[in-house]
Structure formats: C-alpha cells, structure tokens
Amino acid sequence: MQVMPEKRNTRQYMSTVRREPQEMTAEHLGQLLAEVAKTRSRVAFSELFRHFAPRLQSFATRQFGNEQTAMDLVQETMTNVWHKAHLFSPEKGSPTTWIFTIARNIRFDILRKNRHRQNDVSAEDLWPVLSEEMSDSDEDFALDTRILLQEIGEYYLQLPDAQREVVEQIYIEGKSQQEVSDTLGIPLGTVKSRTRLALQKLRELISEQN
Amino acid sequence: MSKIKFHPSEELLVNYVSGQLNAALAVVVGTHIDMCPRCRAVVHDIEVHLATRELHQTSPVAEPQLTAMLESILSSEAPAMPERPALQEHVVLESKSFKVPPSLGRHAARMGPWSKMPGGLWRSPLELSAEERMYLIYMQENAKLPEHTHRGNEATLVIDGVFHDEHDEYRDGDFIFLDSDQHHTPHTADESCLTLAFLDAPLHFTSGVARLLNPFSSLFFR
Predict the structure, then answer these.
(1) How far apart are CA B134 and CA B119, in angstroms?
(2) For this UniProt entry, which residues form the secretion signal (chain A) (predicted)?
(3) What CATH code would you report for A23-126?
C-alpha cells in the first residue's frame, strides 16, 4: 500500500525531469537565432528566452548573490540577443558560448558601474563580442630604430654636493636618515629636507629629457 | 612570425575568459592572444567549457516575471553601443612606428606621453583606471633595466623585438609572468624591444646605483 505510491512518485519525478529541460541542440538554438536575425521572429526568440533566461538567472545569482542584479543581467543579455542575433556566427562557436560571452561582458560592465565613472573601459573594449567590425589579426608586428643612451649616474652627479652626500649615504651605503644625521653632524630635519630636495631635483632632471 | 615560446598559464587564460582579471592585465593577456594562434584555440576551448558549465543549471524564475521580461525585451529599443576610443593600428615613439595588435590598439588612445628613463629606456603609461595601469616600455639596443623585484605580479609581453634576462631570450608574442619572489634583469643586445608591461605594485630595485630609483620608482612605474 505504501510502496506503490512511492514508486509512482519516483516515476513521475523522473518523467518530468526528462521532459523539462529538453535537450536543445546547438543546431536548433542556432536556427532560432537565425530566425530572429532574419525575420525578427518573436516565436523563435521566446523559445530562446525560455531556454536561456533561467540559466542566465542561475549564473548571475551565483555571480552577484543578489536576485535583482541577476535579473538585470538576464534582461540586458537577452535584450542584446534579441537585437544583435545577426552578429552570431555558427563558425565561431555555439549559441550557448556566444550568449555566455555576452553575459560575461554584461557582468563586467555591471560590476564597474558600481565602482567607476564615465570614460571607463567597457567589456567590449576587452572582449569584443557585439562590435560590428571584429578584427582577427594574426600578422607580425614590426619596425624599429634607435635612440640615445643615458646613465643614471649622470643625473646623480648633477646634484649639489650637500644633497649628493646625503643621497649617497642613504641610497648607496644604505644608512638610515638618523645615521646620516649622526655621521655628518647635521640635524635630522636637514637630512630629510636635503633628501626630499635631491629626489625632486632628480625627478626634474629626468623629466627634462622628455 | 617566429614561434612563441612563452604563454600565459591556463589559470590566467581562464580568469581572462571569465572576466576576473585586472582590466590592464586583461589587455596584456588579450594582446598576447591576438598574436598567438595557440592561445586563441585554448581560449576558445575555455569559452566552450565555461559556457557549458556556467549555463548548465537553471534558477526558477516566477512565470509572471519571465513573461513581463520577455514582453519588455520584445518592445525594447536596440541598446546603444557606448562610444569608444578609436582603434589605433600603430603606436609611435619619435620617428619609430610600431604596429600593434587590436587588443592593445583599442586602448592606444589612452596612452600617456613617452618619457625617457636612464639606461636607454622609454616608457609610456596606459591607464584604464586608477588601479588599472600598464606601460609600454621601449628598450633601445644594448639597454638594461636594473635588477629588480616587484611587490606584486609582473606580466610582460614582447610586442616587437628581443630582450633577454638571466633566464632566457624573449621575442615577439612571448608572455612572461613573474611573481614577487622572482628577480630578473631585462636587457637588450643588438636589437631593440618594445614591450607591454603590467605591474600590480611598484618595482623595487635591488642592486647598485639603481637603488637610487626606489624612492621614486613611482616616477617610472606608476
């Protein structure tokens, strides 16, 4: 009496599992994308949407841990699929892979919008997926010539003696500023200011060469 | 094109594909991928693998929400593509012009001015944001970067030319990733070299008069 219904439940469960996520082949998904691209087929898009939205939702929830942000990612991703289906090309990969890369880019942009401002890099700059002109480049990158030689020592030798002395002891002999102060018998504050001035001077000398 | 010997690790490529890398490092890795057919194939495999894995599970979404979203998408306007800086095919240093792969060329408009550094080096900062910087570094013939360690990771990609360190020789497309424990002294011989470098912490010079540079290595690599 008790065993029977259990068995039936199991069978029912298995049959729903089998029916639910019907195995969508890449070919079939690709055909749907092609229909969306060619005829703006709402029926084809709805089928794509019903297949991908719950998967994207699952992916995005894992990424953001926030259901609303996750929904935003699903909506933005599928909006791009609806409008840019013509950019999908089966030679480059499967529909699932293509849609994943769109979602990856949208995730990147959503995360940055929270942190950064305008003039920021967008994911399309890093991984162009939806750019109309995609360039695959595999050439050699060549050319060169020569420029002038410069030595660190040259700059260093141009420092005034008092500054050079301090810099020498700190950065070549490895003394602390206090030790330099003791050795030279000058106040610690003077050591600090000479160091600061010396570094400033070196910066200027190097920038002048620009 | 000569054969590329040094590639990003698979872990780096996976993080590149999943969008987890610092954006500046992603540009360096992406530029390598442009130059490297082998890594392009690996990246493709990773994309397929991640897509399958990440889009395998489903989350239940309430039917009314799904329908509402579908309706809203079907009646939406095409999303505007954000305006982006134009792709540059070359970067120029004085009278020299270097052809660069598109992953770098897409960001070349962000390049700062070249500045000359001691030892026959030139560098130009390329900043994506305050925390995302890289450098184009040009080493003329017989130039030498002082021996240094880094507090973080360093990724170097050879764009054009050859450089050497105590371990090996690196040519067009070679990608070298060093962590904070690794020392090296890059130098050039009778060929010059243009590299793209990412550092996630300032350099720390470890030898000789180059130690002078430490207090303002920020001037060089910031």
Answers:
(1) 20
(2) none
(3) 1.10.1740.10
Q: ipTM of the predicted structure?
A: 0.87
**Residues A88/A37, Cβ–Cβ less than 8 Å:** yes
Q: Provide the sign of the torsion angle of the four alpha carbons B215, B220, B221, B222, taken in this order.
A: positive
State the smallest CA–CA distance between residue B10 and chain A in angstroms: 18
Question: Between chains, do B57 and A207 touch, taking CB under 8 Å as contact?
Answer: no
Range(s) of the domain holding residue B153? 1-222
pTM of the shown model: 0.73
- Span(s) in chain A for CATH 1.10.10.10: 152-208
Q: Considering only CB atoms, which chain A residues are within 8 Å of B143?
A: 149
Residue of B nearest to A96 (CA): B51
Looking at every residue in chain B, the average pLDDT score rounds to 87
Q: What's the CA angle centered on A52, arms B17 and A115, to 5 degrees?
A: 50
Half-sphere exposure of B81 (CA within 13 A, CB side): 14
How many domains in chain B?
1
Give residue B28's identity as a one-letter amino acid code. Answer: V
Interface of B with A in 61-80 (CB under 8 A): 61, 65-66, 69-70, 72-74, 76, 78-79
Under the banding of pLDDT at 50, 70 and 90, the label for residue A6 is very low
Instruction: Note whether B160 and A139 are within 8 A (CB).
Output: no
CA A33 to CA A95: how far, in whole Å? 8
